[in-house]
User: Fold these one by one.
Assistant:
Number 1:
Amino acid sequence: MADRCDIINVEYWSKRWASNDASWHKSFIQPCLEQHYQKLLPKNDGEQTKARIFVPLCGKSLDMLWLAEKGCQVVGLEGVEEAILEFFKENNVAYDVKTLDPDGIKCYSSLDKSKDISIYRMDVFKVTPIILGGTLDAIWDRGSLSAIGLYVENRGSRYADILSSLLRPSGCIMIENHVWFNDPGPNGGPPSHVPASVLKDLFGKNFDITPLEVDQSIIPKNDRYNRVYNLMRLKTNH
């Protein structure tokens, strides 16, 4: 397990990408997303419309390509530039890159009109709707919460507030979190242990939380945890 201070630094994740130690990256579309993605789509007068979907700490996830091919506008965010470059190269997607401010925020955008994908290279704790060009219909959080070091420096509640601020009214989050059979404590992980009680503490004030499914997984060293999926929709009084 990583030192609790390491995982909050982009250098830690950069080293893992550089050494090909990115076990969280999958060469397939997340089954839960395939099964439930229509729940992310907004509805106008009962009709489903094109969704603007945010994927925080996206890496080079194929989920983004799949969502774009479904007609969604995909907005990713990643701190490690190498992962972004690999995404476009490995999927043969031509792109343009723009530097947005003196702090070095970059936006990589697909030049293929059939794949509406933009990925921002920046700190997830600095993202705002203005930077992303507006609010979002939905968020697909595939393990981002479990990777941010949520028990360090109040990062969990800060992260929850940021995601809430990015959504349009009635927007929602589909989230994958990790529940260890043997709680490793706040210093454990990544992925961090995020039981239902923690998810409720972080998001329950602003979101109605609906369980979707549980996917039991085995990771190296024979440690065992469940991947747990929930749909969280902004409350109407938010």
Number 2:
Amino acid sequence: MFLHNLRYYLLSGFRVKSFLFWLMLFPMLLGTLFKVAFGNVYENDVLFKSIPTAVVETSENPVFRQVIDSLGEDDEPLLDVEYTDKDSAMKLLKDGKVSGIIFVDDKLSLSVTEQKMDQVILKTFVEQYSINEKIIKDTAEKDPSKIQSVVDKLSEEVSACKDIPMSHGDPDIYVQYFYNLIAMVAMYGSLTGLNVSLKNQANLSAFGARKNCSSTPKSVSLLADLTGSIIMQSACMILCVTFTHFVLKIDFGDRLPLVYVAAILGGILGVSFGFFFGAVNRFSFEAKTGIVMAVSMFSCFLSGLMMGQMKGIIAEHMPWFNKINPATVVADSLFSLNMYSDYSRFISRITTMLIITAVCTAAGIIVTRRKKYADL
């Protein structure tokens, strides 16, 4: 009897067009739009790139040219140099094709049209080179025997800081939108959970009335519907993660199997939330659907789906809320897998999901089974 009810629920569920759109097609469409909008922003605006620079030599300076050539041998060179004449260099600067012009004469000089990070780096480079050049010239005049030791000292890379990586994953800040996209699909699972509640309440649908008159025990019917809803939602979560990672090429780190686990558990959380909400009040089905959708989207908004800084704002003013907001918990479990080498934060978020799921499911089952009707 259980398997018969489960099979019937799955067959009928996958034929619902709204289910196919909101839990399968819409996330794929939204993810594609995210990819188009944010796909190259991190590479273009955040990651360091060689600074396009024009060099105009009004007098020969073989030492400076040697320094420039040595910088170009690095895997990620500081400068992308183009040697040219003054008129061509000024045109390149005006057109925005170079960040600055270095004039090589008796002294180095720099010409820029704006004060951004690239220009600040160029200014620092020119000033540092000029200082080092003066030190070497003064040493050559006073004590030529010390030139080599001075050059060695100037060549040393001195740093008071130690580079300690805080994460091992993709640092792209825009990946968080895809974490929240998966969390949104998980919260949309509340619609399937709400559907379970609808089909088991005689006062909300004719189908629910027939089920309550059926000889099938209510517990068996309810368990079959919940299981079917979880299977359907899990399929949606697997599809969402697969499409996001393999089609949109979003890097979730090297723990992809656990990403699937977190996504599926998030989907089950969404189902249990919708089932619980549908069972504990007497609103009409339309009202319940509207409220569940509003609550789900508000939860996603607070987790950063629409505004990336929202999670940080909540953490600053109400840090406890991020630990219980379902969408934030799901998104943060994916974030922790990608960014942290240990599993403590991930386990904490998974535990929170399991607790919320257990509480909502148990409460929903208890309330649904206790409902009785005077007549059907």
